[in-house]
């Protein structure tokens, strides 16, 4: 049986960093639960906004939620009204998770960052594939067209897309994949973006996995 490791976790501290950046020994359990529930809730709520990553930073007085998306207009709204409404909903969600959140007197800050090249980010590509499959487009055409778009993006050297489930409504589930370029999963200095998504069709759930290779990252040589 093979041992599978998440490509992002495999490279923590080498060319990737933690998506929750804080430490609090006394409230570690409460804060970790907050991060996990809020991040999962935001991914489901903002599915149409094509979210790339949700990062959380904490200080003794501030909690900053950074949302990277290819459609910032959907989150911000006219004059920032939707962003303010989302901020209030997040605060309400946190108070429901942690009863002591109000006593902490933390300021909640929401930062929305735009992703300039969405085809070079695995999470956004996976959501684009899910949207196409839910529209009942032929899966082979979706795989081919998406992989060609990704490989043509600036800085991308390889892409692999795999889908599994009742494809095109077939009675038996199967696994299909397409690959262009290189995907060196065992090279630690390789910058590999990975994401898993689900497409909810009338025939059932189709799982989607996307790997995008963006070249190798080398440490800068320091002048002694």
TrEMBL record:
<protein>
    <recommendedName>
        <fullName>Small ribosomal subunit protein uS3</fullName>
    </recommendedName>
</protein>
<dbReference type="InterPro" id="IPR057258">
    <property type="entry name" value="Ribosomal_uS3"/>
</dbReference>
<comment type="subunit">
    <text>Part of the 30S ribosomal subunit. Forms a tight complex with proteins S10 and S14.</text>
</comment>
<dbReference type="InterPro" id="IPR005704">
    <property type="entry name" value="Ribosomal_uS3_bac-typ"/>
</dbReference>
<dbReference type="Pfam" id="PF00189">
    <property type="entry name" value="Ribosomal_S3_C"/>
</dbReference>
<keyword id="KW-0699">rRNA-binding</keyword>
<dbReference type="GO" id="GO:0022627">
    <property type="term" value="C:cytosolic small ribosomal subunit"/>
</dbReference>
<dbReference type="InterPro" id="IPR015946">
    <property type="entry name" value="KH_dom-like_a/b"/>
</dbReference>
<dbReference type="Pfam" id="PF07650">
    <property type="entry name" value="KH_2"/>
</dbReference>
<keyword id="KW-0689">Ribosomal protein</keyword>
<dbReference type="GO" id="GO:0006412">
    <property type="term" value="P:translation"/>
</dbReference>
<dbReference type="InterPro" id="IPR009019">
    <property type="entry name" value="KH_sf_prok-type"/>
</dbReference>
<dbReference type="InterPro" id="IPR018280">
    <property type="entry name" value="Ribosomal_uS3_CS"/>
</dbReference>
<dbReference type="GO" id="GO:0003735">
    <property type="term" value="F:structural constituent of ribosome"/>
</dbReference>
<comment type="similarity">
    <text>Belongs to the universal ribosomal protein uS3 family.</text>
</comment>
<keyword id="KW-0694">RNA-binding</keyword>
<dbReference type="InterPro" id="IPR004044">
    <property type="entry name" value="KH_dom_type_2"/>
</dbReference>
<dbReference type="InterPro" id="IPR036419">
    <property type="entry name" value="Ribosomal_S3_C_sf"/>
</dbReference>
<dbReference type="InterPro" id="IPR001351">
    <property type="entry name" value="Ribosomal_uS3_C"/>
</dbReference>
<dbReference type="InterPro" id="IPR004087">
    <property type="entry name" value="KH_dom"/>
</dbReference>
<feature type="domain" description="KH type-2">
    <location>
        <begin position="38"/>
        <end position="116"/>
    </location>
</feature>
<dbReference type="GO" id="GO:0003729">
    <property type="term" value="F:mRNA binding"/>
</dbReference>
<dbReference type="GO" id="GO:0019843">
    <property type="term" value="F:rRNA binding"/>
</dbReference>
<comment type="function">
    <text>Binds the lower part of the 30S subunit head. Binds mRNA in the 70S ribosome, positioning it for translation.</text>
</comment>
<keyword id="KW-0687">Ribonucleoprotein</keyword>
């Amino acid at each position: 049986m093979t041992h599978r490791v998440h490509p992002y976790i495999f490279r923590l501290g080498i060319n990737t960093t933690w998506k929750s950046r804080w430490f609090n020994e006394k409230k570690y359990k409460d804060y970790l639960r907050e991060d996990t529930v809020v991040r999962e809730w935001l991914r489901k709520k903002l599915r149409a906004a094509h979210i790339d990553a949700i990062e959380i930073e904490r200080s003794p007085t501030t909690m900053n939620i950074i949302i990277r998306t290819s459609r910032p207009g959907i989150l911000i709204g006219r004059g920032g009204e939707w962003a303010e409404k989302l901020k209030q909903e997040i605060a309400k969600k946190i108070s429901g998770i942690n009863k002591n959140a109000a006593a902490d007197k933390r300021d909640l800050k929401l930062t929305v960052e735009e992703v300039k090249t969405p085809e070079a980010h695995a999470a956004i590509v996976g959501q684009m594939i899910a949207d196409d499959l839910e529209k009942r487009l032929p899966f082979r055409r979706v795989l081919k067209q998406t992989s060609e778009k990704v490989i043509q993006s600036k800085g991308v050297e390889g892409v692999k897309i795999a889908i599994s489930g009742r494809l095109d409504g077939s009675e038996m589930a199967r696994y299909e994949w397409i690959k262009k370029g290189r995907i060196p999963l065992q090279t630690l200095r390789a910058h590999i973006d990975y994401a898993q998504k689900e497409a909810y069709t009338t025939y059932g759930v189709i799982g989607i996995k996307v790997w995008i290779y963006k070249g190798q990252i080398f440490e800068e040589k320091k002048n002694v």
